[in-house]
Structures are given as structure tokens and as C-alpha cells.
Amino acid sequence: MTTNNANNNVLIQVKDLTMDFGDVHVLKGISTEIKKGEVVVIVGASGSGKSTFLRTLNLLEEPTSGQILFEGVDITDKNVNINLHRQKMGTVFQQFNLFPHMTILKNMTIGPMKLLKKSQEEAEAEAMELLGRVGLADRANAYPSQLSGGQKQRVAIVRALAMHPDVMLFDEPTSALDPEMVGEVLEVMQNLAKEGMTMVVVTHEMGFAREVADRVMFIHDGIIAEENDPQSFFTNPQHPRLKEFLSKVL
Amino acid sequence: MSAWFEDLKEQFILNFIEGDRWKWLLDGLKMTLHIAFFAVILGIVIGVAVAVIRSSWDQNNHKMHGLSRAVMAVLNFISKVYLTVIRGTPVVVQLMIMYYVIFASSTNARMVATLAFGINSGAYVAEIFRSGIMSIDKGQFEAGRSLGFNYIQTMWYIIVPQALKNVLPALCNEFIALLKETSVAGYVTITDLTRAGDLIRGRTFSAFMPLIAVALIYLALVMALTWLVGKLERRLRTSDH
Ligand SMILES: Nc1ncnc2c1ncn2[C@@H]1O[C@H](COP(=O)(O)OP(=O)(O)OP(=O)(O)O)[C@@H](O)[C@H]1O
Ligand SMILES: [Mg+2]
After folding, report:
1. B2-239, CATH topology level
2. Which residues of B212-234 are buried (b: 16+ CB within 10 A; e: fewer)?
């Protein structure tokens, strides 16, 4: 039994989550808790279901069965307005997915203005402050196509932050980047973690997992095959598949 | 040579100056532009709606449930019937059915014709626009939904503006086609540009001048529009954000 106190610290609770695509069983029963302020890194082989898991957390994919409690509300319930809860869950994609027909500033203000009903002045002031934090204030009026990959991903991160989310979900945020740009994005994420943001990060950057994660999760065969603090996870893996996986990526 | 020129001048005066018959052409042109303009607007409204219904059904029907699924299934079915019927029959037949059957009690031929051409154009716009929506990366949609926008908001703020930009040249070509198609409006008692030329021919018993004049006016309109489309395309390409 969890005490009331412990419950208050849990931001996302996943219960027996399964996901089938046709007769392919991608997730076969995932249960876990993500606490406020926690940084959880998810690793696993290609095709193991990492993205699928992350995407079910904000219901971009609708799970086949199981529950996801976000801030105490079961968001898999059909009667829940998922749009309101998604506002509290920032998502950063591998392919950035900035809106190409809007300036950087517009990319960042459209959500706060249309959804949080902020005034243009307020939304823009906040956006400029966020852009300043990632060193891109001078690109506010540029279009996404005029930015480098690393710059685009930094904008994507602050675009999500402009909604004041309670958790940030990252799906391989650096995998589409040229190697020399990986660092600038990881640095932004690391600062975010330091500021206490709750983060769930799918990544192949083992250095990031080791340094920033509070917990590392290994997804294999549709379940969490192993999870641990980074120290134990990397130095003392138990699952034979994890040992094999680590020997390949480290 | 000068006899030939004299003859031409005589013909010109007979067909256009006498009885102010050039005004017939001008009024016909106004009618043509009026019908084409409002039909284009109607076509865009219908086309965008049908395209959004068709593409959201194709992309998301497996995710829909209950009542919304039933509503969308019906809308999608109606859209498909609409597309099949409109694209499978000649526009002049549609126009006559609208005027003599569906709106038989109406005396406002111009409005009925505008409706008929708009409904016709909507089917072609829908297919152009659907290809535009389908060409937008699905990550754009997911990014919109992830920010917390609902389906309609995501379509409106994120997908539709990009799709519209992608298909603008194709849309313009559809409007050029529509402008020319309105030339059958005479079948339902409307004096458009084509009918005006024909009326002059009937009055003066000379076919060459009025019909060539009508052809030249259409040609000038189409060339002007084509030039505008080309300019637009170049603008879009250079500012390709
Ligand atoms: N929409 C879908 N329809 C059918 N199958 C899917 C769909 N999305 C994912 N899959 C399948 O589910 C499995 C898990 O995919 P997922 O993208 O979650 O893996 P991943 O761990 O993120 O892999 P990667 O490291 O390559 O990104 C794969 O076998 C994939 O083919
Ligand atoms: Mg993935």
C-alpha cells in the first residue's frame, strides 16, 4: 500500500499497459510510476516499443488495455478531455516537427495564445525569455527552414516549455542531428533536469543516461525487462539481453 | 487591301458599335465573372470541408469510437457519393438539373448557376485539397495534438494553411477551368459572355466578329490568370519556409 504522501509525489502511474498493432503485441504489460522531478531514461533495441510506450503516455497512441494516471486522472478514460491533459505534457520529437509556415516566435506563441488564452504581449515576452535561455533570441523572426538541426530542436524544446508542462517527453531528441549538434541539445535537456523538470527520455545517448537520469529503464520484448539507478544499471546489469545490449552500445 | 479593311471596319461597327452592342459583351463578361467568382468561393468551402472529412476518415477511422465514428462514417459516405456523381456527369447536365429540376421554382438563374458551378468545382477542389492534406507530414499533426490542440484546431492552425500553400497552383488551374466552364450558363437562360456573343451573332447575322471577340476575351482572362499563378508560384518557391 502506498501512503498518501508517496502518492502525491507520483506524477504518472502506468498500470498494465498493453499495445497491439493488429496481431503484433508491442507492449505486453508495462507498469511503472514516474515521480515529480524524476528523470527517467528509456533504452532498448530498435523496434522494442520505446516510442510506442512514450506515445501512449500522452495518448498519441491509444493503448489496447491498461491505465495511465496522470496527476491522479485516468487519461485512458474516454470521458476525459485528453486535450487539457496534453497541455501539461510537453513532447519533443526526433524530427522536431516545428511548424514550417510560422516564424519561431509564432511557433512558440500559438499554443499559449490559443489554448492558455494569453495575450500576444505576454506570450511573446515569455517566448523571448525562453529563446534567450537557449541562446536563440536573435532567431525569433526566422522560419524553421532557416535554422540548423540543433537550433530547431532547441526551439522545439522551448516551444513545449512555453505551455508550462508538468512533464516533458522526449523521443530520441538527438537522433536526427549531425554529431556536432548533439551536445547543444543535451545541454538544454540537462539544464532542464537540474531545474527539476520531470522528464521521460528515449535516447541512445548513454552518457546522458549515466549523468542525468535518476532511473534507466530497459524495454525488451514488450515489458520493462530491467530498471535501476544509472550506476547499477550500467555497471551491474542482470538481464542477459541488457548485458548484450550494453556491450553493443557502450 | 483597303477594301478588306473597310469591310472589317463595317463589320466592327455593325457588331459592336451599332445599338451599343459592345455593352452586351460587357454585361455578359460581368455575369461570367460574377458566377465564376462566387462559384470559386463556394467550391473552396465545399472542397475544404469534403477534403478534411475524407482525409480524416482515411487516416483516423481505426481510432474513432461510438457516435463520432458513426457521424464521420456517414459524412464520409456522403462525400464519396458527391465526388462520384459530380465528377461522373457533365457540368452542363448538372446545371440543367439544378435549374429545371431541383430549383424549378426559382427565377434567379444566376444564383442557381453559381450554386451549380460551385458544387461542381467543390468536387475537384476537394480532391486537390485532399492530396495537399495527405502530403503534410504526420509529425505536424502529432505536434499540434501534443501541444493540446484538438482535432479541428490542429487542422485549422497547422495542417490546412500548409496544405493550401502546397496546392495553390493546382487550385488556380482549377479556377481557370471553372471560368471557361461557365460558358455553358446560356443553357439556363443566363446571358453570360458566350451567350452575349451568340446573341449579337443572331442579331447581325455575322458570326466571325462576335465569336472571335468572345474567344479573345476568354483568352485574355485566362492568360492574365495564368500569369498571376506563375508569379504566385515563383513567390511561394522563393519564400519556401
Ligand atoms: N502505427 C503502427 N502500426 C503498426 N506497427 C507499428 C506502428 N508503430 C509501431 N509499430 C511496430 O511496433 C514495434 C515497436 O515500434 P517502436 O517505434 O515503438 O519501436 P522503438 O523501440 O521506438 O524503435 P526505434 O529505436 O527504432 O525507434 C515495431 O515492430 C514497429 O514496427
Ligand atoms: Mg522509436
Report:
1. MetI-like fold (1.10.3720)
2. ebbeebbeebeeeeeeebeeeee
Amino acid sitting at position A233 = F
First vs last C-alpha separation in chain B: 59
ipTM of the complex: 0.92
A contact residues 54-113, partner B, Cβ 8 Å cutoff: 58, 60, 62, 78, 83-84, 86-87, 89-91, 93, 95, 97-101, 110-111
Collapsing DSSP to helix, strand or coil, A19 comes out as: strand
Interface of B with A in 37-66 (CB under 8 A): 63, 65-66
3-state secondary structure of B219: helix
Residue A171 to residue A157: CA distance in whole angstroms: 12
pTM for the full model?
A: 0.84
Per-residue pLDDT of chain A in tens (250 residues, 90 and over written 9): 444 444 579 999 999 999 999 999 999 999 999 999 999 999 999 999 999 999 999 999 999 999 999 999 999 998 899 999 999 999 999 999 999 999 999 999 999 999 999 999 999 999 999 999 999 999 999 999 999 999 999 999 999 999 999 999 999 999 999 999 999 999 999 999 999 999 999 999 999 999 999 999 999 999 999 999 999 999 999 999 999 999 988 7
The answer to whether the CB of A23 is under 6 A from ligand 1 is no
- Rounded CA-CA distance A234/B179 in Å is 70
What would the DSSP string read from start to end of A90-111? EEE-TT----TTS-HHHHHHHH
CB-based burial of residue B170 (10 Å sphere; 0-12 exposed, 13-18 middle, 19+ buried)? middle
Q: Are B163 and B176 in contact (CB under 8 A)?
A: no
Alpha helices in B62-159 (DSSP H): 66-88, 91-97, 109-134, 138-147, 151-154
Q: Where are the alpha helices (DSSP H) in chain B?
A: 2-12, 22-60, 66-88, 91-97, 109-134, 138-147, 151-154, 160-181, 193-204, 208-238
β-bridge mates for residue A171, sequence order = A202
